[in-house]
Design brief:
binds iron/sulfur cluster, globular, iron-sulfur, Dimethylsulfoxide Reductase, domain 2, Rossmann fold, metal ion binding, 6-stranded mixed β-barrel, 7-stranded mixed beta sheet, 3 domains
C-alpha cells in the first residue's frame, strides 16, 4: 500500500495578533501536523500551546462533527435547520435581503463580521454593504477589540498606524506594559520580551494592571491601579515628567502642537492626587515616570485594558502624550505600540471594514473619501449616512430598525456585552444569516440560514499582524463537505443582488469580477495608492517570498518603523497632544454591587472555544470556569475554593465556582471571557437563559471609538446554597 507524501504549506496562525508563521504538514486531505516557520519574522519558528495544537483542533472539529458541512435552512423559528442546496441557499439569501432593502431601505440590513476573516473576505463584505446595497451598517468584532487604539492613534498621530515593530523590544531600555497580559494573550511576543530581559539586564519592565498577572510577575515595577484609572496614571506621570524636566522641549517645539493646554490640565494631577485616584503608591508612580523619561528608548505595549473602556480613546491618547512629550517615538526601541487581539483586526481596518471607515484608511465622514471610493468601485455614490457600530447595530435590531443581519465568523450571542439584549435583537430580526465554520456557536441557534465557511488550513488570502506585517494564509487541504471560502459566498450573493438591481452597476457587467482572492487583493492594493498604508508594492508574488510590513509603495522597500523623520500624518505634519479628561468607570461598585468584575483571556483558549474547547490537553492549564476573588473576600464570604457562587450584575446572573487568588485585589473579581453555554448556566434579570460573562457586562461604550467597556462591571457575589 502506498501512502500519499507529506505536503508542507506555509501559512499563518489564525489565533492572536502576533501573527506567527506556521508550516502545515498534510497528507492527502488531512492536516497531520504543524510547526513554527523558522523564517517568519514574527516568531522565528516558535509557537505557543494554541498554535502548536492547530492540527489537532483541525482533525477534532471533523471527528466531533462540530463543523458546519452544508448549507442549512431553518423552516421556522424554534425548529431544527434542514439541509438545502447551495444555489437555493444563495438565491434565498439574496432574495430576502433584496426584499427587505426594497421594502425598508438599505439601512434595514446590517453586517456583523470578524477580525478573524481574511483581508480579501473583509474587502468584498465591505463592498457589498457600502457599494452595492448602499448601507454603512457593517461592523466587526474588532470594534470590541481595537477601535479605541485606532481612535487614539488618529487623534494624536493623525493615522491608524502603529509606529513600532517587534524588533523594538530588543532595542528598548524601558518597556511599559499597560492593560495587557502578553504572557497569556500574546505568548510568543512575551517570550521575546523574556529573551530581551535575559540579554539586557539594564532593561526595565513596568507593568500597570489591576491584576497581578503572569506578565506582572516579570516586572521590575508593578502598578496595581484600580480599573479605569489609566488616564489619571498617565496624567500623573506627565506631571512628574514636566516637574522634573524629563520632557524633550526641542522635540515638542519641532514636531508637536497643543502641549500648553495639556500642560495646564496635568497641573491638576500631582503625583499624590493621581496615585490616590489610581489606588497606588505615589512613590511608585513617580518611579515609573522617571524610568519612562530617563531611558534612552521607552516602548509602551498595550491592549484591551486601555481599549475596552468607555474612556478608551482618551486612555490611548493620554499614553501617546507621554511618548510625544519625551520624544520617545520614531526611534529604535521607542514608541507607543498597541497589540492587536485578533489575527486580522488590522487587515479589516485597512480595507475599511467598519461602520465609520472606507477602503485604505479613508473616513466615511469625509465627502472626498466617499467620492474616491465610489470612483474606485464604479458605483454612483457611497452613502453619507453613518453606519451602526457593533453595539448600536444590535440595539437597532432590538428596536426593529434593522430587520436582517448577516453575521460571519463571529459569535455575538456569546461575545457581545449585555447578552440578553443581543439575543433579543437576533430573535426580533426577520432574517438572520450566519456564515460559519462551526455549527456549535451560540449564534447558530438564531440563524434562519446557515452558510458553511472554510477555515484555517483550507483557505487562501492575507492577514496583517500587530506590527503591520502582511502574511499569506494558504490552503493545505480542501475544505470539508460543502464548505466554501468566505469571499466566494459573498461574491455569489452579490452577483444575485446585482441581477436584482442592474441600475446600481453604472453600466458595468458586475462590480464583483473576482475569480480568486488575489484578484480582490489587487483591487484593494490599488485602492491604497498614495495613502498612508500604500501597499502597491506588495503583490502576492512578493508576499510569496516573505511577509512584509506596510507601507510599501510600488518600487520601494517596506518600512518597519514610522515617524522617524518627526513628520506625522496630520494636516500640519505635527503630532497633536490630546487634552483628554479622566473619566471613571461607567458602573462604579456600590453597596449593592460591591465587586469590580474584570474580564480577560486564558493562556490556552481562544474566544468562544469553538476550536480550542475540543482539545483535552488545552484544559490542562485551567480546567473549568471560575471567578477569582481575593483571599480576604473569600474568607469574608465564607467561601472555599470550588464553592459555587452566584455572580450577579444589574443585567444577569451566572453560577460558577469561586477560587481564591492574590492576582486580584480586595473587592475585585476576575473571570475569563471564553466559557459559554457548555460550561456555565445563568439567566438575565428578566429570566431568559444565558451563559458566560457577557450575561453580566454592560453595553456602555466610548463616545469616540464606540468600543464597549467589557473590562469593568459592578457585580455582587453570593454563595450558592445547595438544595
Ligand atoms: Fe498563534 Fe498567537 Fe500563539 Fe503565535 S502567539 S502561535 S499567533 S496564538
Amino acid at each position: 500500500m502506498t501512502t500519499a507524501p507529506v505536503q508542507l504549506t506555509r501559512s499563518t496562525c489564525p489565533y492572536c495578533g502576533v501573527g506567527c508563521g506556521v508550516i502545515i504538514e498534510s497528507r492527502g486531505a488531512q492536516i497531520i501536523g504543524v510547526r513554527g516557520d523558522p523564517d517568519h519574522p514574527a516568531n522565528f519558528g516558535r509557537l505557543c500551546t494554541k498554535g502548536s495544537t492547530l492540527h489537532l483542533t483541525a482533525t477534532e472539529t471533523l471527528a466531533r462533527q462540530t463543523r458546519l458541512l452544508q448549507p442549512m435552512r431553518r423552516p421556522q423559528r424554534g425548529h431544527p435547520p434542514q439541509p438545502i442546496e447551495w444555489d437555493s441557499a444563495l438565491d434565498e439569501v439574496a432574495q430576502r435581503l433584496g426584499e427587505i432593502v426594497d421594502r425598508h431601505g438599505p439601512d434595514a440590513v446590517g453586517f456583523y463580521i470578524s477580525g478573524q476573516l481574511l483581508t480579501e473576505d473583509y474587502y468584498v463584505f465591505n463592498k457589498l454593504a457600502k457599494g452595492l446595497i448602499g448601507t454603512n451598517n457593517i461592523d466587526t468584532n474588532s470594534r470590541l477589540c481595537m477601535s479605541s487604539a485606532v481612535a487614539g492613534y488618529k487623534l494624536t498621530l493623525g493615522a491608524d498606524a502603529p509606529p513600532a515593530c517587534y524588533e523594538d523590544i530588543d532595542h528598548a531600555e524601558v518597556i511599559f506594559i499597560v492593560g495587557a497580559n502578553p504572557a497569556w494573550a500574546h505568548p510568543i511576543l512575551f517570550r521575546r520580551l523574556e529573551d530581551a530581559k535575559r540579554a539586557n539586564p539594564r532593561l526595565r519592565l513596568i507593568v500597570a494592571d489591576p491584576r497581578r498577572t503572569e506578565t506582572a510577575e516579570l516586572a521590575d515595577l508593578y502598578l496595581p491601579l484600580q480599573p479605569g484609572t489609566d488616564v489619571a496614571l498617565f496624567h500623573g506621570m506627565l506631571h512628574v515628567l514636566i516637574w522634573e524636566q524629563l520632557i524633550d522641549p526641542a522635540y515638542i517645539a519641532a514636531h508637536t502642537e497643543g502641549f500648553d493646554a495639556l500642560r495646564q490640565r496635568v497641573l491638576d494631577f500631582p503625583p499624590a492626587h493621581a496615585a490616590q485616584l489610581c489606588g497606588i503608591d505615589a512613590a511608585a508612580l513617580v518611579q515609573a515616570a522617571r524610568w519612562f523619561g530617563q531611558s534612552r528608548a521607552t516602548l509602551s505595549l498595550y491592549c484591551q485594558g486601555l481599549n475596552q473602556s468607555r474612556n478608551g480613546t482618551a486612555k490611548n491618547a493620554a499614553l501617546i502624550n507621554l511618548h510625544l512629550a519625551t520624544g520617545q517615538i520614531g526611534r529604535p526601541g521607542a514608541g507607543p505600540f498597541s497589540l492587536t487581539g485578533q489575527p486580522n483586526a488590522m487587515g479589516g481596518r485597512e480595507v475599511g471594514g467598519m461602520a465609520n471607515l472606507l477602503s485604505a484608511h479613508r473616513d466615511l465622514a469625509n465627502p472626498e473619501h466617499r467620492a474616491e471610493v465610489a470612483r474606485l468601485w464604479g458605483v454612483a455614490e457611497v452613502s453619507a449616512t453613518p453606519g451602526k457600530t457593533a453595539v448600536e447595530m444590535f440595539e437597532a435590531a432590538a428596536r426593529g430598525e434593522i430587520k436582517a443581519l448577516w453575521i460571519a465568523c463571529t459569535n455575538p450571542a456569546q461575545s457581545m456585552p449585555d447578552q440578553a439584549r443581543v439575543r433579543r435583537a437576533l430573535q426580533r430580526c426577520e432574517f438572520v444569516v450566519v456564515q460559519e465554520a462551526f455549527a456549535t456557536t451560540a449564534t447558530c441557534a438564531y440563524a434562519d440560514m446557515l452558510l458553511p465557511a472554510s477555515t484555517w488550513g483550507e483557505k487562501e488570502g492575507t492577514v496583517t499582524n500587530s506590527e503591520r506585517r502582511i502574511s499569506r494564509v494558504r490552503a493545505a487541504v480542501p475544505a470539508p463537505g460543502q464548505a466554501r471560502p468566505d469571499w466566494r459566498i459573498v461574491v455569489d450573493v452579490a452577483r444575485r443582488l446585482e441581477a436584482r438591481w442592474p441600475q446600481r452597476l453604472n453600466g458595468r457587467a458586475t462590480l464583483f469580477a473576482y475569480d480568486s482572492p488575489e484578484a480582490i487583493w489587487n483591487e484593494h492594493r490599488e485602492s491604497t495608492r498614495g495613502r498612508d498604508l500604500d501597499i502597491t508594492g506588495l503583490s502576492y508574488a512578493r508576499l510569496e517570498e516573505a511577509p512584509h510590513q506596510w507601507p510599501c509603495p510600488e518600487g520601494q522597500s517596506p518600512r518597519a518603523r514610522l515617524y522617524s523623520d518627526g513628520r506625522f500624518a496630520t494636516a500640519s505634519g505635527r503630532a497633536r497632544f490630546a487634552d483628554v479628561d479622566f473619566v471613571p468607570v461607567a458602573e462604579p461598585r456600590d453597596a449593592r454591587y460591591p465587586f469590580s468584575l474584570i474580564t480577560g483571556r486564558l493562556r490556552d483558549h481562544w474566544h468562544g472555544m469553538s476550536r480550542t474547547g475540543l482539545l483535552g490537553r488545552l484544559f490542562g492549564h485551567v480546567s473549568e470556569p471560575a471567578v477569582q476573588l481575593h483571599p480576604q473576600d473569600m474568607a469574608r464570604l465564607g467561601l472555599h475554593d470550588g464553592d459555587l457562587v452566584h455572580l450577579t450584575s444589574r443585567r444577569g446572573s451566572i453560577v460558577l465556582p469561586a477560587q481564591g487568588s492574590e492576582q486580584v485585589g480586595p473587592c475585585q473579581a476576575f473571570m475569563a471571557m471564553h466559557w459559554g453555554e457548555e460550561y456555565l448556566s445563568g439567566a438575565s434579570s428578566s429570566g431568559e437563559r444565558l451563559a458566560g460573562v457577557n450575561a453580566l457586562t454592560l453595553p456602555t461604550f466610548c463616545p469616540t471609538s464606540k468600543q464597549p467597556e467589557l473590562k469593568h462591571t459592578a457585580v455582587k457575589v453570593l454563595k450558592a446554597e445547595l438544595p
